[in-house]
Design brief:
This protein has 488 residues and is mostly beta strands. The chain is 5% helix and 33% strand.
């Protein structure tokens, strides 16, 4: 009886405490700032529908875990920030939802800035959109989203039509301080080709802090026609994860430009034979490239997966660090313009004289369909090109349909993997394919395949483990990601 009374009192106190949460309607940046002076954890500010022109909205305060302070649109997508409007989110446990930026643009700074070098943690931007929000000149540099602080999240947003210099979404780091951000379920659309550096879609870090372990996760995003520059996704920090993303007809690469110990896992790169479309570029040490599917890649970086040669000694920020101890395993590359794999990209250029070393290339499928029409080269090119450095290990790889190129290592078997297109358009192995159970080496840390299905028993070669288990990951389309109110 005593326990029951205590429980009843606790529930009464909880309900009473929660009942103090308030909801206030605001119609200008000035009203937002005023309301936030008294806002408490659990409160909500509702932005009135309509145009908010030339407004600098400062959303600053402190919510609490489980009780954030929210700033949301009265109707998702109907609060339109235009002209030179921008948003600053400063504090802890703050949520912004349902806003749309269009019909304007900034010549400098960021459209949405989450945090600063001093404050900003556990904040979230969700269900928002920035579309065609550009200054008049391509040379005016501004970013669309800047993430500072730690443990912030950007999810279910739409970013499309950025034309000027400046990154679509950039993570700014403080040296030796983990960020821990999550960037997920967003739509990154049309990003026309720029005229040099600074046209990335995502950049995580900068050269001066590239040895910082950032712990940023980029997952379940769709990138479509992101053509700004070669480094479509540019990694410039350590220990980040890029997984379960889909790239469709993007003239760029997922580039591990600076930093160490990153993971690229379970991504669908569907280049579609588009001119200058690329795959994955690998630079620096201890990266893991596993379970990725690449189809229709062209020549943006010279090959579908590219290992880059490095410079002697400590490299300058603009130079290339030597690749060491990379693990390239369980990937499938199909119907692309050879080479599928380059071992020494850039050797002899810009002071690069060091070959990659101690690289493991294991259990990959390199397949050139005999009737491939979209990517047939004008001349015969090898599947694997370049010179390997010291300590390379080859095991369990299967290649078929074109000349291997290099002197065939013992760890590459020439046999038809018997792949066929599945209903999702992906080339997958048949039940009696020679990839089944043929993986070699101890890769017990690779616990799933590209579909998110468990790898059990004898592992299959390539990104797809034949399984009857439910599919957890598949190629994304526009209706899977972005704001609920802006999906096709």
């Amino acid at each position: 009886m005593k326990s029951f009374c205590l429980l009843a009192i606790a529930l009464t106190l909880f309900v009473a405490q929660d009942s103090f949460a308030t909801e206030a309607t605001v119609a200008s940046a000035e009203e937002v700032a005023k309301a936030m002076k008294s806002a408490q954890p659990g409160d909500t500010l509702v932005m009135k529908d309509g145009e908010w022109k030339d407004q600098t909205v400062v959303f600053e305060g402190k919510g609490a875990e489980g009780k954030p302070i929210a700033l949301r649109a009265q109707t998702p997508g109907k609060v339109i920030l235009c002209g030179q409007s921008n948003l600053r989110i400063n504090g802890s446990y703050l949520v912004v939802q349902g806003l749309r930026f269009t019909n304007g643009g900034l010549s400098e700074g960021s459209v949405i800035q989450v945090g600063s070098e001093e404050i900003g943690d556990h904040c979230r931007v969700t269900d928002c959109a920035i579309v065609d929000y550009n200054p008049p000149s391509i040379d005016e540099r501004s970013h669309w989203v800047s993430l500072y602080g730690n443990d912030n999240r950007v999810d279910h947003c739409r970013f499309s039509g950025k034309t000027n210099s400046g990154v679509t979404l950039v993570v700014w780091l403080q040296k030796d301080k983990p960020a821990g951000h999550r960037i997920d379920h967003n739509y990154f659309g049309r990003r026309p080709r720029g005229d040099g550096n600074g046209f990335e879609t995502i950049r995580v870090g900068t050269g001066n802090v590239s040895m910082t372990a950032a712990h940023v996760v980029v997952e379940y995003n769709l990138f479509e026609e992101c053509d700004g520059e070669m480094e479509m996704v540019s990694n410039k920090s350590c220990e980040n994860v890029y997984r379960y993303n889909t790239f469709r007809k993007c003239s760029g690469c997922l580039t591990l430009r600076q930093g160490k110990r990153c993971v690229v896992d379970g991504n669908f790169i569907l280049a579609g034979g588009k001119e200058r479309a690329g795959g994955i570029r690998v630079i620096d040490e201890d990266h893991i490239i596993v379970n990725n599917y690449i189809e229709g890649a062209q020549t943006r970086a010279g090959g579908a997966i590219v290992l880059t040669s490095g410079v002697l000694g400590d490299s300058e920020l603009k130079q290339y660090s030597q690749v060491k101890r990379a693990r390239i395993a369980f990937n499938t590359i199909v119907d692309s313009l050879p080479p599928y794999l380059i071992l020494d990209a850039g050797m002899g250029q810009d002071g690069r004289s060091l070959l990659p070393e101690d690289v493991t290339i294991a259990n990959n499928v390199f397949y050139a369909p005999l009737k491939a029409a979209t990517t047939a080269p004008k001349k015969i090119l090898p599947m694997i090109a370049g010179q390997e450095g010291a300590g390379f290990q080859w095991m369990g790889n299967i290649a078929f349909g074109a000349d291997i190129g290099v002197e065939k290592p013992d760890g590459v078997t020439v046999v038809d993997p018997q792949l066929a297109r599945d209903k999702d358009g992906v080339w997958r192995p048949s039940a009696d394919s020679p990839v089944c159970g043929a993986a070699q080496g101890d890769f017990s840390e690779v616990k799933t395949d590209i579909d998110g299905q468990a790898r059990t028993g004898k592992y299959d070669v390539g990104c797809d483990q034949i399984s009857e288990a439910p599919v957890q990951n598949r190629p994304l389309v526009a209706s899977d990601v972005g704001p609920s109110w802006a999906r096709p």
